[in-house]
């Protein structure tokens, strides 16, 4: 497998018809993860969240998985991965400054693991699920309206 790290075509999203929608959903996911990482967790939710590290891994895997399906260029995916890892580390430092949350290095490891897992899966069939679903929607729903 050959990787392309040239800056040409980094932000191209020609494979998706509803790219603005998908990018907007991704921004909302980023906001949701950021806000939920900083606000205080209610007591009933704390009791349910037994596997905190799994939640961290899934949250960051979802972010990386989402954006790596939108942006298929290798350099863009590398920048996304580095940015999401930096975001996870930064949020942990911010949590250490709040009275209701705590700094945890293992959360950083879980965040990074999620990013790396989704980055790797982006190069398999999993990386094409969004384009496949969009194509399926266009073939079934939009064709039915014509």
- The number of distinct helices, counting runs of at least 4 residues, comes to 6
Percent of residues in helices comes to: over 70%
DSSP, total strands: 0
H/E topology pattern = HHHHHH
| Spans of at least 5 consecutive residues with low confidence | none
Radius of gyration: 17 Å
Strand content: under 5%
**What is the residue-averaged pLDDT?**
89
Structurally, the number of domains stands at 1
Q: Biggest sheet, in brief?
A: none
Structural class: mainly alpha
Inertia-based shape: globular
Q: Give the end-to-end Cα distance, rounded to a whole number of Å.
A: 41 Å
Protein architecture, described:
It is a single chain. The protein has 146 residues and is mainly alpha-helical. The protein has one domain (19-35, 50-145). The chain is 71% helix and 0% strand. It is built from six helices and no strands. It has helices at 19-38, 43-48, 52-70, 74-97, 105-121, 129-145. The longest helix is centred in the middle third of the chain and has 24 residues, at 74-97. It is globular, with a radius of gyration of 17 Å. The termini are far apart. The model has no long low-confidence stretch (mean pLDDT 89).
């Amino acid at each position: 497998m050959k990787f392309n790290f040239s800056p040409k075509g980094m932000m191209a999203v020609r494979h998706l018809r509803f790219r603005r929608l998908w990018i907007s959903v991704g921004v909302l996911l980023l906001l949701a993860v950021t806000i939920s990482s900083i606000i205080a967790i209610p007591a009933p939710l704390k009791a349910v969240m037994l596997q905190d590290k799994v939640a961290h891994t899934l949250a960051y895997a979802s972010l990386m998985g989402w954006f790596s399906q939108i942006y298929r260029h290798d350099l863009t995916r590398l920048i996304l991965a580095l940015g999401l890892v930096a975001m996870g580390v930064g949020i942990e430092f911010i949590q250490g400054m709040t009275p209701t949350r705590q700094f945890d290095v293992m959360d950083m490891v879980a965040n990074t693991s999620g990013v790396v897992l989704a980055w790797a899966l982006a190069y398999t069939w999993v990386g094409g699920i969004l384009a496949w679903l969009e194509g399926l929607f266009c073939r079934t729903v939009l064709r039915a309206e014509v």
